[in-house]
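Entry 14. Ran structure prediction on the chain below.
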Amino acid sequence: MRVFLANPSYTKQKYLKFGRCMQKTSTWSSLWPPIYLMGVQSFLEKEGHETLLLDCVASEVMVEELVERIRGFKPDFVVVNTCLPTIKEDLELAERLKGYKTVAMGASTKLVKEKFEKSCFHAVVSGDSEDGVLKVIKGAEGFVQGFIKDLDSMPFPSYRDIKIQDYTLPYTGDFLAPINVGRGCRNACVFCMVPVLNKGSRYRGAESVVAEMEMLTKKGVNHFLFWTENFTENRGLVEKVCKLIIKKGLKVCWMAPTRADTVDPKLLSLMKRAGCWMISFGVECLEQKVLDACNKRLSVETIKKAVLETKKAGIKVVAHAIIGLPKQTRENFLDTVNWLIKNDVDYAQFYFATPFPGTILKRIAKKNGWIVKESKGLEECSMRNDHMTCEELVKLRNLAYRKFYFRPARVWKEIVGLKPKNFIPFIKSSLNFLNNWVKI
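Output, structure tokens:
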């Protein structure tokens, strides 16, 4: 079979369509390779199918040209990578491709299943897209659930149709490659869509992870993102990955997201020696009653301790905070921002609490009459809470960004720490940040 794999783009605004990360690239001022779509490509080619992948977001190909390229390839199936912020356009694309068997994939397909089932898509894939798309090509139709128990059985994502130079880190311009280390999460935070998409957690083996890194270093990549919900949840895996990197002498840098209750000085020291330069934590809000209302199952002190221990280990920290959560007030949100500033946290992201379909937060917000409009992404305020209106939340979030990023000492620290080769990427990233995030 001939299969065209598309990551569509409909406007000049680039969207990251990366599992639960469905947001503007301005969040990180960078774009990541669509590794789930690339994974489908390698999975299909292993089975003998002919494929062509086009990342329209990276190559800035608009929908008219995409349709023409699809027609030129004459595929038996067209796989479309979808996300909530572009769902209207994704459904319209399926209408335009009525003459082909189109397959929708992406986190959005399960979150808003009914919209896809009523659309012109021949099939809709949820769960592990690699397995789901293959089932469709073998004859399955309608809503198809994919699942791969042994993640090590999967071939590495294909980089054949991808230009690595299109995906770089902000500030440095270095090529960045995400590596999907695991899937799912054992936790159940009320605001998170992951429990809706993937209950429980599965991980790859350390040998497979490091082998993929070695393959990519040969392509000129030495910066990696270990992509999973909670990297250090599987301590044994982390220790083995780190020891293998050190043993093989790989000169790599990497970052990973994790939870505050799964790190300690000993593990952080090993991670640092293996090339870890940044960890992101879900700080959410440093007020215990808010954390409890979100079923975070973490104490404020545990979060603070993890952040400070990570910095002490010489690893940079990204703090992800949320504004508009149940029981959250203006005061305790600003207290969170001020603590991050006082303790010189390296980077911070401030997201709106978003009632994604299927989440517990959606049920809470609906019950309390908080929903203002349909939720599409973390950068758009779609719900209020008992203490703040949407208008107040927008102003407060803009204030948080100004307070955190426009401190003279912080700006100076960034400039002084720049290497000459990173100056232009830094200026470009900073201007992009100002244009997309901060409305003064």
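The domain at 168-436 is CATH 3.20.20.70 (TIM Barrel). Will compare against last week's run tomorrow.
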